[in-house]
Amino acid sequence: MTPEILYAENSFAVIVKPAGLLSTGEGDGTVPGALQSQLGTLYPVHRLDRVVGGGMVYARTPAAAAALSTAVAKGLLQKIYLAVVPGETPDHDEWQDYLFKDSAQNKVFVVPTPRKGAREAALYFRTLETAAQDGAALSKVRVTLLTGRSHQIRVQFASRGFPLVGDGKYGSRIKAPSPALWSGQIGFPHPITGRDLTFCAPPPAIFPFSLFSAPPEIEHKYLIRYPDVEWLCRQDGARTREMLQTYLTAAPGEPRRVREVREGGKTTFFYTCKARQSVLSAMEKEREITAEEYETLLAERDTTRNDIRKTRYSFPYGGHLMEVDIYPFWQDRAILEVEVRGEEETVLLPRGLRVIREVSADKRYKNVNLAKEIPTDPLP
């Protein structure tokens, strides 16, 4: 079990904790211990149960630890969880309870009225999707904690007949590697600048999360000034690919295309179809095809659109993949695309790219429309 470094800078790091590791402490069985050689000392400012995985933030300096701890105390650390429970949950609801922890059993109980040691607990949830397993319904829910209590989500759902899948401690009869609870989104103020940051960590594709549809492709698109190509090629993990993109006849709003990609003397071919869900998100299905399939599909070319040629430079930065597309018809601008895990996730851009503005909602800059008309408006 190796934690994933989602993002790191001098003052803090965002980590994806696997279920089964302790979020605090030292040694190989802990997140700080597992990442000691890569990140040095990590200062925990919040916790996840050992059996729960997902996104966490750690400070990397004592000053950052103090700032983040203050943010936690003020309720500025925002965590959104994904959970899977048996049955069909309401579309949405807010639950308020009194919780009492029996330390001897390390178990939490809902109690009907206030009592010594009981604490108020509140959460809000929305049902995202339902699926079937052996003829029985399962619900995937998005949970926002309004308070932060020990085992809160697990016990509040179990008390209403929805024990988390795999959570035998609270009554689940469905086996799973660990309780189906995942810290899917975390937000907090930057410990130095105070800027609000949000990071997303999708759950692993294992049971029961694997029963549900994959999240849509969510993409930010930026218009940038023509970049320094040598700088792009010097970035760690940089790749360069030549692409030829041809659009095929398709239903409105569901573009289809074939793409020829050349990289390092090798040529591959892909077929892609998309169905847009929002300004930022789309369901995309892409598969590699043979040269023969590519030639056959070219017969379905949309003759109202031109082919799109571009050179794509890509490199990882800030926990995301930067993809810079340079087109032969522009000498003063290019397009930067950044795929994210959630529409609210913070995108940190490298200083070596000069961003003019975000154009995610500007349909003129979608490749399918560039194949018809090229924007030539003057740059600011």
Task: Give a description of the structure.
There is one protein chain. With 380 residues, the chain is mostly beta strands. The protein has two domains: 4-211, Pseudouridine synthase, CATH 3.30.2350.10; 217-370, Hypothetical Protein Pfu-838710-001, CATH 2.40.320. It is built from seven helices and 20 strands. The strands form two sheets. Strands 1, 2, 3, 4, 5, 6, 7, 8, 9, 10 and 11 form an eleven-stranded mixed beta sheet that branches. It has an eight-stranded antiparallel beta barrel with strand order 12-16-15-14-13-17-18-19. β14 (256-263) and β15 (266-276) form a beta hairpin. The longest helix has 12 residues, at 62-73. The N and C termini lie far apart (49 Å). The model has no long low-confidence stretch (mean pLDDT 93).
